[in-house]
Amino acid sequence: MSNESLNQRRLQATPRGIGVMCGFYAERAENATLWDSEGKEVIDFAAGIAVLNTGHRHPDVVAAIEKQLQAFTHTAYQIVPYESYISLAERINARVPIDGVAKTAFFTTGAEAVENAVKIARAYTRRPGIIAFGGGFHGRTSMTLALTGKVAPYKIGFGPFPGSVFHALYPNELHGVSTADALKSLERIFKADIGPDQVAAIILEPVQGEGGFNIAPPDFIQALRELCDTHGILLIADEVQSGFARTGKLFAMEHYAQKADLITMAKSLAGGMPLSAVAGCADVMDAPAPGGLGGTYAGNPLAIAAAHAVLDVIDGEQLCARARELGAHLVEVLNNARSECAFIADVRAQGSMVAVEFNDPQTGEPSPEFTRQVLETALSEGLLLLSCGVYGNVIRFLYPLTIPEAQFRKALEIIYRALTR
């Protein structure tokens, strides 16, 4: 079946609001490789938007799902529970960077995890306010869109959004926002919009995903922790995109001395199966009354089985160390290209959470045009890349951490050519 015929069917059958990036259709996949409906091979540096840190169809993940299929596929955990949910919570509780005893609840999507983190924070503090950051992305539901700090394409036409949500500046050296500037913006919110005694939580991505892989400076995380402690505010780390070895540690918050009160996770948690979670301090997690948390498919047993396998693979194949190794090689290539590519304004990395940002060398303004050119050139050579950033001028690299070495080297050669042609 041709890609063109499938595209025509898509246009007739599905709404235009579901934006589709690629003009080809997946037929099968293995580790870091996709094959389309016409048999064309593509190196996948998108990984389902950071979902496949352990690659497409890792054999251990497939085996775990197949084994669970032979037992049962669904009971609804809050109706008839099962041991695998409990043991996965125990494994995450033992490793999540939270002070003291932790508890974990499972859901289905990243947005669902974020919404439930907000519910938990409000239940614990009995306060309404939530502060998020410009450039942050937290989901596509009404509440998570209110938190998201990027208008196009996510928020256009969907307002009004839930109230008691306020946005502060996120530190970004390239764009002239220092840690001091970001902290001043928080103080302005406390003066002009909502008193700190009415704020339940501050939520941030320790490495912004859709916002451009902007990495929170250590002094910013320290200041946020101190601010939250002073005012009785909870700190929520949204690790939906940064979790599960991508940054070179299981969680990005492990790069900081300070800890969050709640951490949201999803994407690579279950190797392609829909599963998300909120983990946090036990007393905070226990704030909602029985029945206040859950969902029909929350903690689906197939996804839970996959997540157990993912944790085994991350440890067994030492993917945190591999993330650091692969990321260092990619950063070296990007930095080497700077002498031939005047559009490169910045290269940012934490482990394998790597991004390159492009500005017009004449004007200094963001260049989404050059970004699109690099994406198109790479795809013409069989490499799928993703853009991001508030201005659409950043390329993020989301290869599976299990990618074969030879294939990774081939991809780096394509990237270098696309940047310097």
**Classification by helices and strands:** alpha/beta
How many beta strands in the DSSP annotation? 15
Q: N- to C-terminal separation?
A: 34 Å
Strand order of the biggest β-sheet:
4-10-9-8-7-5-6
Share in helix: 25-40%
Task: Explain the layout of strands and helices.
Blueprint: H1 3-13, E1 26-30, E2 33-36, E3 41-44, H2 47-50, H3 59-69, H4 83-95, E4 102-107, H5 110-125, E5 129-133, H6 142-147, E6 165-168, H7 179-192, E7 199-204, H8 218-231, E8 234-238, E9 262-265, E10 276-281, H9 282-285, H10 301-316, H11 319-337, E11 344-350, E12 353-358, H12 368-380, E13 383-384, E14 386-388, E15 394-397, H13 405-420
Parallel strand pairs: 3-13, 5-6, 5-7, 7-8, 8-9
Antiparallel strand pairs: 1-2, 2-3, 4-10, 9-10, 11-12, 12-15, 14-15
Helix pairs in contact: 3-10, 7-8, 11-13, 12-13
Descriptive account of the structure:
By secondary structure, this protein is of the alpha/beta class. 37% of the residues lie in helices and 17% in strands. It has helices at 3-13, 47-50, 59-69, 83-95, 110-125, 142-147, 179-192, 218-231, 282-285, 301-316, 319-337, 368-380, 405-420, and strands spanning 26-30, 33-36, 41-44, 102-107, 129-133, 165-168, 199-204, 234-238, 262-265, 276-281, 344-350, 353-358, 383-384, 386-388, 394-397. A 7-stranded mixed sheet has the order 4-10-9-8-7-5-6, with helices on both faces. Helix 6 (142-147) links the parallel strand 5 (129-133) and strand 6. Helix 11 (319-337) runs parallel beside helix 13 (405-420). The mean pLDDT is 97.
